[in-house]
Amino acid sequence: MQPKSENVVWNHSLVKPGERRALLGHGAVTLWFTGLSGSGKSTLCNAVEKRLVELGAIAYVLDGDNVRVGLCADLGFEPADRSENIRRVGQVARLFNDAGVIVLTAFISPYRSDRSSAREILPAGQFVEVFVDTPLEVCEQRDVKGLYARARAGEIPEFTGISAPYEPPEAAEIRLPAGERDVDWCVERVIEYLRQTDVLAS
Amino acid sequence: MQPKSENVVWNHSLVKPGERRALLGHGAVTLWFTGLSGSGKSTLCNAVEKRLVELGAIAYVLDGDNVRVGLCADLGFEPADRSENIRRVGQVARLFNDAGVIVLTAFISPYRSDRSSAREILPAGQFVEVFVDTPLEVCEQRDVKGLYARARAGEIPEFTGISAPYEPPEAAEIRLPAGERDVDWCVERVIEYLRQTDVLAS
After folding, report:
1. Which residues on neighbouring strands pair with residue A32, listed in sequence order?
2. Left if phi > 0, otherwise alpha if psi is -120 to 50, otherwise beta: which for B107?
3. What gap in Å lies between CA A202 and CA A132, rounded to an integer?
4. Which residues of chain A lie closer than 8 angstroms to B94, CB-CB?
5. What's the gap in Å between the CA of A135 and the closest CA on chain B?
6. d(CA B171, CA B178)
7. Are residues B154 and B14 in contact, defined by beta-carbon separation less than 8 angstroms?
8. Has residue B10 got a pLDDT over 60?
9. Which residues of chain A have pLDDT under 70?
10. How many residue contacts between A and B have a Cβ separation below 8 Å?
11. Orientation of helix A79-99 relative to helix B79-99, angle to 10°
C-alpha cells in the first residue's frame, strides 16, 4: 500500500539492530500461527511465549481477539476487513520485531494471499509461518467457544471451515500436528526451529 | 470504541506483568511527545531511546512518519484521519507496554481530545505526556523539511500552527523547553522523570 499522506519518510533509529540483539541476547522474528478456529493457535502461542520468557527471551502474543478488541475494533469479518486486519497486524509485528521482540500471532488468517502480504511486510526471513494442522473434525468436536454449533445453525455467517474457505499453507516453515501431538511437543518443535535458525542461541 | 466484531474476548497471557519487569529490569510506560512540526519531537525521541538502550532498557520509538508509511498508510491529515491515526498508535503503544517495552511516540497530536483518548486507552499512570514546547517562530525559522514555507504558500492545507490549530497540553507530566535547552538537557530531564516514577531503577 502506498502511503496516502505525502511528506512522510522512514525515521531511522539511532539504535542499531545489532545493539538490540546484544542487549536482549536473541534475534527477533514473527511466528505467524495459522489454522482453523479451535485448532489450538492461542493455546500454543501462549505456551511458546511462556517458554520463551522462561528462557530469558522477550516475546509477545498478538492474539486475534485482543487485536479486535483494540487496534482493529473498527473491523468485521468480511473478506476486505479480514485483509485489513491482517495488514495491520503484519505492520505491528514489523514494529515489534524492529524493537527486538519475538512476536507470535494467533489469527485464523484463512487466505493464502493475506499471509503472503504479511510475509512481504516483514524483512526477508523474519516471517515464520506456523501451520497448526488440526483437522476440522477435531476442531468441530472440541468446539471450545461453541462457535461451530452456531455456524452450522447458520447463526454466524462466513465462518471459516464451514461457510468460508480455509486455504492451508503450501510450504509453512513449521507444521504442528496439534491433533496428534500435545502442547509440550509443539512448543519444543518451535523452540528447536528458533535454535536451528539462530534466533535463539543454541 | 466498541468492537465491531462479536465473539471476541481478551486473551490473558500466561506471562504475568511482574515477570516481564523482572526479566527486563524496568517498567513500561508510553512517553507521548507532542508539539509542533519541527519542535524536535523525533530528535528527542530518538535521543531518549538511544540513552535508554545504553542504560540496558528496551525502548522503541513509534514515529509519526514511520507509522504513516505502514500501519496508517490508509490515512490522511483530515481531523477524522488524524484521530484514527492517534487511536491506532495508542492501541499499539498499549500492546508494546504490555510486552514490557518503553514506548516513545513522536506525533504532532495537535488535539487535546485525541491525546485524552490515547491516555484513556492505556492503563492508569502509563501515559506520560511530554510537551515539546518550542515556540512556533523557532520551528518556522528552522523549517527543517521546508514544510512551513509550503504551508505559508498555501501548498499544504491544514498545516498545524499555520492553518490548523495546535492545542497545547494543560498539565503535561513533562515539559521540555526545547527552544532554550539542548538535547542532552532534555534527555536527562526525561530519564530523571522515569527514575522518580520508578520506571527505571534509581
Report:
1. A105, A129
2. beta
3. 25
4. 70
5. 22
6. 17
7. no
8. no
9. 1-11
10. 149
11. 50
ipTM for the predicted complex comes to: 0.88
Instruction: Give per-residue pLDDT as tens, B170-202.
Output: 999 999 999 999 999 999 999 999 999 999 998
Closest CA to A123 of A98, A92, A142: A98
- Give the model confidence (pLDDT) of B99-152 as tens digits: 999 999 999 999 999 999 999 999 999 999 999 999 999 999 999 899 999 999
| B17: in domain | no
* Largest Cα–Cα separation, chain A: 56
Question: Using CA atoms, how far apart are residues B172 and B189, in angstroms rounded to an integer?
Answer: 13
In 3-state terms, what secondary structure has residue A164?
strand
Structurally, chain B folds into a number of domains equal to: 1
pLDDT above 90: residue B16: no
Residue count of chain A, please give it.
202
Q: What is the CATH number of the domain that holds A161?
A: 3.40.50.300
Contact A127, A55 (CB under 8 A): no
Q: Nearest chain B residue to A147 by CA: give it.
A: B7
Q: Classify residue B150 as exposed, middle or buried by CB count within 10 Å of its CB (0-12, 13-18, 19+).
A: middle
Residue A83 to residue A98: CA distance in whole angstroms: 23
Within a domain: B201: no
Q: Which residues of A touch B5 (CB under 8 A)?
A: 68, 75-77
Which are the catalytic amino acids of B? 109
Give per-residue pLDDT as tens, A23-65.
999 999 999 999 999 999 999 999 999 999 999 999 999 987 7
Residue B1 lies in a domain: no
Question: Is B41 a residue whose pLDDT tops 70?
Answer: yes
SS3 B63: strand
The reply to whether residue B14 touches residue A49, judged by beta carbons under 8 angstroms, is: yes
> Which chain B residues have a beta carbon less than 8 Å from that of A91?
70-71
CB A128 within 8 A of CB A26: no
Name the residue range of residue B98's domain.
26-196
